[in-house]
Structures are given as C-alpha cells and as structure tokens.
Amino acid sequence: MIADGVEDEEKWLAAGITGLQQNAFYMHRALDSNNLRDALKYSAQMLSELRTSKLSPHKYYELYMRSFDELRKLEMFFKEEARRGCSIVELYELVQHAGNILPRLYLLCTVGSVYIKSKEAPAKDVLKDLVEMCRGIQHPVRGLFLRSYLSQVSRDKLPDIGSEFEGDADTVIDAVDFVLQNFTEMNKLWVRMQHQGPAREKEKREKERSELRDLVGKNLHVLSQIEGVDLDLYRDTVLPRVLEQVVNCKDEIAQFYLMDCIIQVFPDEYHLQTLEILLGACPQLQPSVDIKTVLSRLMERLSNYAASSTDVLPEFLQVEAFSKLNNAIGKVIEAQVDMPIFGAVTLYSSLLTFTLHVHPDRLDYADQVLGACVKKLSGHGKLEDSRSTKQIVALLSAPLEKYNDIVTALKLSNYPRVMEYLDTETNKVMATVIIQSIMKNNTRIPTADKVDSLFELMEGLIKDLDETHEEVDEDDFNEEQNSVARLIQMLSNDDPEEMYKIICNVRKHIMTGGQRRLPFTVPPLVFSALKLVRRLQAPDENPFGDETSTTPKKIFQLLNQTIESLSAVPSPELALRLYLQCAEAANDCDLEPVAYEFFTQAYILYEEEVSDSRAQVTALHLIIGTLQRMHVFGVENRDTLTHKATGYSAKLLKKPDQCRAVYGCAHLFWVDDQDNLKDGERVLICLKRALRIANAAQQMSNAARGSTGSVTLFVEILNKYLYFFEKGNTHITVAAIQSLIELIMTEMQSESSTPDPATDAFLASTKRYIQFQKQKGGSIGEKYEPVKV
Amino acid sequence: MNFLVGAFKAPCSISITLADGRSRKQVPLKKENGKTAMVPLFQSQENIIGEVVIEPVQGKKVEHNGIKIELLGQIELYFDRGNLYDFTSLVRELDVPGELYERKAYPFEFSTVEMPYESYNGVNVRLRYVLKVTVGRNFISNIVEYQHFVVQNYTPPPSMNNSIKMEVGIEDCLHIEFEYSKSKYHLRDVIIGKIYFLLVRIKIKNMELEIRRRESTGSGPNTYVETETLAKFELMDGAPVRGESIPIRLFLSPYELTPTYRNINNKFSVKYYLNLVLVDEEDRRYFKQQEITVYRLLETS
C-alpha cells in the first residue's frame, strides 16, 4: 500500500510536470509574440499545477522549482513590458484578475518584484501588500512555498540601509517588518501542519515538516543578512518578535529548530548583548523541547567567541554572561521537571566549558556550576545511564583540559562530590583521565592536602569501591595500577617535611588498596621515600639535624611497616627486594640497627615465604649482593648475616645453584675498599667448597644421565680464582690456579663429557685473558707469569 | 423589420445621421439576431440632434401622408414577446403629407431628452432606445427606419457609503466575521475586505467570493427571477485556524456588470449580490449573500 502511494505520487508528479511544461510552452509562445493577455492566461494555468494536494513536500518542491524557473522568464517579460511603457501599476492589477488564488499570488509576487524595481511605488508598500495578500493561502505546504517564493524574489529588494530601495519613506524598519511578518506567517503554517491529518500519520508528518523547516529558517537568515539590523534594532525589535513567535507557537519541533536557528544565524556579539532576552525565552518553551542542545550550542558559540580574541572578554564581564546563563539553566531545569539527568548534566557541562573559556580566573564560577550539578544529582544515587556518565566525564574533564593542572581542579570543592555519582567503572575512567592529565603536563602536586584530595578523587583506582569483585581484564587492571604507580612517582616537594607528609598520606591511601594493588603501589612509594632519605642525608638539606621531625629513622620505620604489608599480600619476593633496598639506604645513613632489622626481615621472608627454588636463587643472589656492599655493620652483625647467607647457599636445591651461591658468598669476605674485610682464608674456603660442589654435580650428572655435563661451573670458579688472585688474596696461589686449569682440561677430554660450545668459548676467553694479563707486564704481569696455560 | 424593407424593395432609402455622429462615443450593442453592432452612446438630458435623409429610388416618386421621427424608450419582456412598453415616446413631424421626387434632408432635434433608464440586455428583459423614422403611406405599409442607441447614466459618488460588516456562523461549528469596505461600488471599483475567522471546527477546503446578478421581471404572481453568477473569485486556499484574517481584493472591471436597477418602470429590477462561499472537504457549501449597489461613476476628470 505504501509502495502504491509512492508510485501514485510519482504519477501525479509526472502529470503535474507535463501540465506545467505544456502551459509553459504556450506561455513562451505568448511571451515571444508579446501577447500579455495570453502570457498571463497560460502562466496562471501553469501555476495551477501547484494547487495539487497530492504530493509530499519533497515532490512538491520539484514542481515548485520548475515553476520558479518559468516565473523568472515571466519576470523578465514584465520588466520588458514596463520598459516598453506598459504601466506597471496596471500590470499589478491585471494579474489580480486571475480567479484562482494560488496562481494569482504567484503572479502578484512576480509583478510585485518588478514593481519595486521600477520604483514607481515605495518598496515598503508593495512588500506590505504582498505579504498581506499571501494570507489567502492557508494550506501549509502551498503557503510555505508561496511565501518562500515571496521571500526569494524580494530578498534583493528590501529597503535595507545602503540599498537602492532605501528612501525617505522606506527604512530598514520596513524591511525588517516585512521579513518578520513573512516569517511569522510561515511559522504558523509550518506549525499547523502538525495538527492536520490523521493521528496515525504523525511520524510521516514530522518527517515532512523537517523537510520544510529550512523554508522557515531562511527568513531568519535573511534577517541576519540585512545590513541595517544593528544591535539596537536586533535587541529591540527583531529578537523580541522572533522569540514571541517561537514561544507562542507552542510547537516542539519549531521551537527547537528556531532557537537553534537564532543562535546560528545571528552574530555572537548580538547574542552576548541580548543574552537576557534570549535566555528568558528558554523556560517558556514546551517541556519536550530539547533545550539542553539549544543552550549547549549557544554556550559553545559564546565559548568559541570568547576564545577567538581576548578583546571580547570585557564584553562578557560587562553583561555578566555567566550569571545570566547560570540563572537561565537553573530556571530551565526547574521548569522542565521531566528533563532527564543526562540533559541537566549536558547543560552544566556546557556551562562549565563556557565559564572556563570566559572566566578562567574565576574558579568560584566553575565550582558553582559543579555545585549546582551535585544538587541536581543528589537524590538519584549512582548514575546508571551511560549517556549521563559520559557527560559527567566530559564535565569533569573540562577543567583539567583547561587548566592543564590538577591542582587547580582540586581547589574545586564540588569536584569530588560530582565524581561520587559516577559508577565504579566510570569513576576509574575519570581517575585515569586525571592521571593522564598530570602525566601529560608534568604537574607537580606540592602539598599533602592536595595529595589527599587527589587520592580521594581517584578512589576508584586506589581501592575496591563496591563489595562485588567483578572480573576486570588483567591487562586493564595492570594498566590502571601502573598509572597509579607513575603518579606516585610524580609527587614531590622540595620541603622534606611536606614531602614526608605527602608520603604518609599516599601510604594511608594505598594501604586500603588490597592485595592486588599493593604490589603495584608499594614499590613507587618505597622508592619515593628512599629518595627523600637520600636527600636528608645530604648535609645541607637538613640544617636542623635531628631537631626536625622528619628523620631518616622515622621514614625507615614507616617503610618497614609498609613493606610488611606486602609480605602479607603475599608478595614475598617483592617485599624482600624492597627490604634490601631499604637496608642499603639505611647503610648509607649509617643506621646499623635499622639496616640490620631490614636484613633480618629479608632473611625471615627468605626462610618462611620464598619456597620456589628459582625464586630462592634470585633472592639469595640479591641478598649476597646487597650484603657485600654493606659497610655499616659491626663484625658481629656482619658475621651473623654472612654466616646465614652462606648457610642458605649450601641449602639450595640444585647443585649448580649451590655452587654458584657459594662462590658468590666468597665476595662477602672480601670487600675491596675495606681493609678489615679481607679474609683471604675464608674466601678460599668458599671457593674450595664451590669446587667440591661442582665436582659432586659432575658426578651426580654422570650417575643420573651417563654424561658429566659441562665444565661451565669449573670455568666459573676459575674466574673467581683469577679475580681474587688479582686482588691480592695471598691464599689463592698459582699452584691452585694451575691445578684448576688442569682439572678443567682433563674433564673436557674425558669421554663422558658433553661438548658445549658456550663453555668452550668461555674457557678460551678466560685463557686469552690470562695471556693478556701476562703480556701486560708490570706487577700484574709478574703475578701471572708463573701461571701456565 | 429591416429585412422587410429589403424584401419589398422600398421605394426610398432612409438614413438617420446624428450631428455629432463622428465624435460621439460608440458602444457595442447586441442585437436580436445575435450580432453586435456599434451604436452611439447617450445619457439623459442630452440633446439628440441630427438629420434624416430620404432618397427615393431613381425615377420614382414617393407618395406619403406625413414623415415623422420618434424617440422611443422601450421595455421588452421576453416572456411577453411582442409587447413593447414605451416608457418614453417623443415625436417630431418632419414633413406634411405630399410627394417626394428627390433626395430630401430633414433636420431634427430632441432637446434635453429625459432618459431615466439605462439600456439593458438581460436574461428575460431588454430595455432599449431607438430613433424611429416613419414615412406614412396610405393602403400600403409605412416605410420605417430605426437607429438604435444606448443610454448610460452616470451617478456621482454616493454621499453615504457604509461598509458591510457582519458576523455569521453555525453554532459551535464556524463563526466568521466579514467586512466589505463599502456597500456601493462603481463598475470599475475594487472590493476590499477581510474575513475574520472566529471559530473553525470544520475542515474548510477553500473560500470564494461570487458576484451574482438577480434579475427580477414582472410583478405579482407573474414575477420571474433569474440569478446569474458573474464571477467566482477564490479568496482562500486551505483550512484557516481561529484568528486568521483573509484579505479580499476583487477588481470589478473584468466582469460585465451593470449598475443596480431598482424597479424600472414597474417592469423589472436588477440587483447585485456578493456571495461568500466556504467549501469544506466534503464539498458542503456554507454561504452568506449580501446585496451591494452598483453604480456608474460619473468621471469627474
């Protein structure tokens, strides 16, 4: 049935075009032979095709355009006639003899245009007559097209300032009156379409209306093009009258479209100076009008205007643009009870953008907006609607983008209150946005208070907000937490006192993060604290000595507690590393008991928590490495720790691991820059023990697999021998080295050994090294002299 | 009757010429045989001066018992065909009985002739003026010649010319108020007016203004009334809503109107009406008729 309708319409259109062309043909003939009477007769018949009610606006437009072209030719003819001496006044009367109104009015407008051009009568009188006479067409579509034709032919003939049609009797006021009246009538017709025809075709009608809206809006465009419409005229006449029509038409589609039109076609400075009037109309619109979009666009335009040049900013202040907009939005939200939260938030978001552009210095304005938003949100609980949340994110991101500085945003007391209304997911997104802003701008957050507020803002990332632990994507989670970690690194203050407070605050917050987050957040905090410790160490940084409350000792206490939490997580390897880091820092601060305590913690962790053998190996090497560098310990403490470490080494599961740990331990007894820590004998004991273990490993391998495995371990031990030999450990003798080399060679030639190119290469380079040292001469060369390779 | 002259080949030819015949305005007049001829135009109280020329056919004498010229104002009712009512009859004797041998001219003059009624050619009635020359003869029929002419009388603009204003309606359905700026219009006038829609509950399709002529002939039980619609002029297209006002501007010049004639010699009258017609979507017609007076304006220029 619908298809039939479309087909029928095509048919009707085709018939209309045929009729039109036929009559146009006769009209042309009449024009060619200067036969006025026939020309009028056929043009009226041609225009009669426009009387159809069967076409949709779209198709009707096609017919209209064809008529329009033909009427241009007729107009040319009328001009010719007038030049030939035919009285234009008579012509004006003559066309009105047509019996049918629609052709009559099209002809009248056409002659009217020539009439104005001839200047035989004041333009305003002709215009007024035309616009009045057009009232005869009350059919919406036909009326709209007729009036649009009128608007079209009169556009270049308005008595505008500076136009040739301006005169004593014709002023721009007349031009404005004319366009306004035509606009008003067109809008009435347009609105009326909505109420005609059966209710079931509402949708179709709305579609048709939207196809026609530009015909109505065109009038506003014409108004905006009139040179003579200056601010005064706009404020006192044009705008009030347009708004009156908009408000009174009580039609949702029209109100939305026309408000938008007003905002788009007239200049920004006019809007600014007439804000009150324009905004005053908003609460009077129908409740169903999408006012938020309208206002948002207005504010967007004004924002852009403000951004365009700083010269215009005083204007904004002068008219108190912000408070006007703010009031208007309040009123609109109040008036439109059913406006969804989404709408309200959009409005606030636009207003915020506006105020940020226009009044970057007035944080209180921004805060006011956020406060109003909170008020609107309160009583709604968390937002579920995704569009609203999206808007809130936009709202909250705006200050960050503008100021590029979270510190400023933190001054907005209502900022976190708005965030509270976001759901967990969005809250996280927002927090990430904040962090990214900080990263991007390298913002420094200088005070503990700010840090506190910031972390409150980012609650969503810092801890689990709701009880339900929904499964989050592992990667996403890591990403989030990494960014938090980066953020922690960014916090710094030159004043150690304040920095300490910052650290305490951060700690307070991240401790609530739960076991999944701590491994990410604790390390940066620890390093941040250690950084502070290092700074305190520097003599000039801490002029008051122990007088100040922030002492390394205190920090270390804090660190101790912090790291402890990691071991509970459990993340023992990480905790162990951090303990060792702290120990080293304590070492640098000459705090032996503290360092010892950290080591103890590390050892406890090693013993109780680190059970994986691979982890053990790594941990142990770390312990050895750290311990080797410690100089703060007294003999007793050091012995204890060294002894323990050696003991651990021997207890590793795999022989090669044991071997390596043990020869590593050798270093614990030989610290280069400390003379009291050069126990050559114990070094040798360690190395010998390592050799034994290596031997045992070879045999085990032989027994278990039938081959002795590689000699890598021996080569490694040889290297250790060489190292200590070179360092002047007298217990390492040339004979010992010599015998080790021979041992390796024997092992390599044994049948059961597995060839291993890596080991061969290692051995070869070791040999080359010995050779090299020999040739070097001097004391080293002498020392190596007896070693035979 | 002219053809009778031709048929029997009258012994003389008669021609009537007017003194100002060349300069006088000529207007078309539809004759009985359907043809249109141009005839001179007069108005009341004009002098009708001219000359009758009688020329006997070569070598014949015309014997007559008197020659006269009459000026007749006649009303002819078609349903009463054949009966002419003369409301005006003036006679001038041109010659005493005698004989005519050669061409002879007789000047004549009717001074300030009272011609109160205009020539009119209606559906059922005709009012005409004629100059009739009769050459009276014994025993055989008289020789007659006619000269038709048209009378139009001009009126100055009326001193009172009120507007027509009226509110009409169908209860709870349609209420309109219309206004025509005048009640009296001259023939080349323009009707200006407005229609206000006070209440619209029907779906109106369009609105027209008709000019109707009501010609009433006879009297008493023999009254014949004939109504013609002379103009149909579309005023509005589409359905208005409450509060709309639609302008009216109708030029009368394209239509063939006559002035309003009220009681012409108790024989007939011609009246004009404006009929406002609203048509709804089911083609029902709602109308209101108002009489207007039409007059022939005396051009002062």
UniProtKB/TrEMBL annotation, chain A:
Residues folding into a coiled coil are none
Source taxon at top rank: Eukaryota
Family affiliation = Belongs to the VPS35 family.
- Its chief place of residence is cytoplasm
* Protein's recorded name: Vacuolar protein sorting-associated protein 35
Is the keyword rRNA-binding assigned to this protein?
A: no
Question: What organism, scientifically named, is this protein from?
Answer: Erythroxylum novogranatense
Bilayer disposition of the protein = Peripheral membrane protein
The subcellular location is:
Cytoplasm; Endosome membrane; Golgi apparatus, trans-Golgi network membrane; Prevacuolar compartment membrane
Fetch the PANTHER family from UniProt: VACUOLAR PROTEIN SORTING-ASSOCIATED PROTEIN 35, VACUOLAR SORTING PROTEIN 35
Keywords noted in UniProt: Cytoplasm, Endosome, Golgi apparatus, Membrane, Protein transport, Transport
Function, as annotated: Plays a role in vesicular protein sorting.
Matching InterPro entries, A to Z? Vps35, Vps35_C
- Mention one GO biological process in which this protein takes part, according to its record: retrograde transport, endosome to Golgi
Automatic annotation (TrEMBL), chain B:
InterPro entries, alphabetically?
Answer: Arrestin-like_C, Ig_E-set, Vps26-related
Alphabetized Pfam families for the sequence:
Vps26
Its membrane topology: Peripheral membrane protein
Alphabetic keyword roster: Cytoplasm, Golgi apparatus, Membrane, Protein transport, Transport
Q: For this UniProt entry, what is the primary localization, expressed as one broad class?
A: cytoplasm
One record GO biological process? intracellular protein transport
Example of a GO cellular component annotation carried by this entry: endosome membrane
Q: Where in the cell is it found?
A: Cytoplasm; Endosome membrane; Golgi apparatus, trans-Golgi network membrane; Prevacuolar compartment membrane
Q: What is annotated about its quaternary structure and interactions?
A: Component of the retromer complex which consists of VPS29 (MAG1), VPS26 (VPS26A or VPS26B), VPS35 (VPS35A or VPS35B or VPS35C), VPS5/17 (SNX1 or SNX2A or SNX2B). Component of a retromer subcomplex consisting of VPS29 (MAG1), VPS26 (VPS26A or VPS26B), VPS35 (VPS35A or VPS35B or VPS35C).
Q: Which family does it belong to?
A: Belongs to the VPS26 family.
| Role description | Plays a role in vesicular protein sorting. Component of the membrane-associated retromer complex which is essential in endosome-to-Golgi retrograde transport. The VPS29-VPS26-VPS35 subcomplex may be involved in recycling of specific cargos from endosome to the plasma membrane.
Q: What is this protein called?
A: Uncharacterized protein
Per the UniProt record, the source organism is Erythroxylum novogranatense
